[in-house]
Amino acid sequence: MPTTAITDITEAEQGSSLWHDAWLRLRKNRLALFGLGTLLLFVVIAVLTPWIAPYSHDTQNLDLGATPPSVTHWLGTDIFGRDLMTQIMYGGRISLAVGFVATTVALLIGVTWGAIAGYVGGRIDAVMMRLVDIMYALPFMIFIVLLMVVFGRNMLLLFLAIGAVEWLTMARIMRGQVQSLRQQEFVEAAISLGLPPATIIRRHLIPNALGPIIVYTTLTIPGVMLLEAFLSFLGLGIQPPQTSWGLLISYGAETMEEFPWLLIFPGLALTLTLFSLNFLGDGLRDALDVRGARD
């Protein structure tokens, strides 16, 4: 038998995993790759900011004031004489941290809640999902303001507060996925072997629902970052001397007529990050859609 035929038979027997096929499809999506590359670039810059920032975070020159972009300050300076590029780099650390940490909190709560509700079913499912509906009806802004009033303004509390109001949709998505997987043969086999429900949920149901979870994660992070920017714009989010893109945009909006670069550059950084996450989320949704790929 020819060597080529043997190789083809071997590859056919080995097959290909869902994640490998998804990566091959994702590589064909240029917008998704652009989003992934841009996001990784911003993350690397955020991690290395203390070492690569052109100036110290608290370096200011009040006599210099707000100056337009120049050779010395590529993106200009703010009204306190601080280098705007440095402020954007440090603000990116906070904004990205809020996005990733708050989304992680939302996923932990939502995935656990939805998986239990979908697997157990019955009255427990009804009660758990009615609680989700009730929380949907509550205005999240009032909830966050109350947390700030009771516990004070704290960055970690902000992460937890945003995550605590963003898990509801994930719970519904996870519940639907588990209810669909609950009828599959591998779950019935695990039940017949006497595995406890917690083990079945952790080892079988959640891993098989990772596709929708990953897609929703990439779509949740932009929403969380926008929420943080909105809270900072209202003065309820990050407080000086710390900074974030939302806080920089808030300052820029106040002086946009005199110093437009203070609004343009932080706005571009936030906009580019949000577009990148949305491009990546759309690409992952298409890549992980096996039925769509077959069509």
Residues in β-strands, percent: under 5%
Question: How many distinct beta strands?
Answer: 0
Structure class: mainly alpha
Helix-strand topology string: HHHHHHHHHHHHHH
Number of helices: 14
Overall geometry: elongated
Radius of gyration: 24 Å
Q: What is the domain total for the residues?
A: 1
- Under the CATH scheme, the architecture is Orthogonal Bundle
* First-to-last CA distance: 34 Å
The major β-sheet equals: none
Overall pLDDT: 81
- What oligomerization state is this entry in? single chain
Give the helix level as a range of percent.
Answer: over 70%
Detail the topology: elements first, then pairings.
Blueprint: H1 3-14, H2 18-27, H3 30-52, H4 84-120, H5 122-137, H6 140-151, H7 155-165, H8 168-181, H9 185-192, H10 197-208, H11 210-233, H12 245-254, H13 261-287, H14 290-294
Helix pairs in contact: 2-13, 3-4, 3-13, 4-5, 4-7, 4-8, 4-10, 4-11, 4-12, 6-7, 9-10, 11-12, 11-13, 12-13
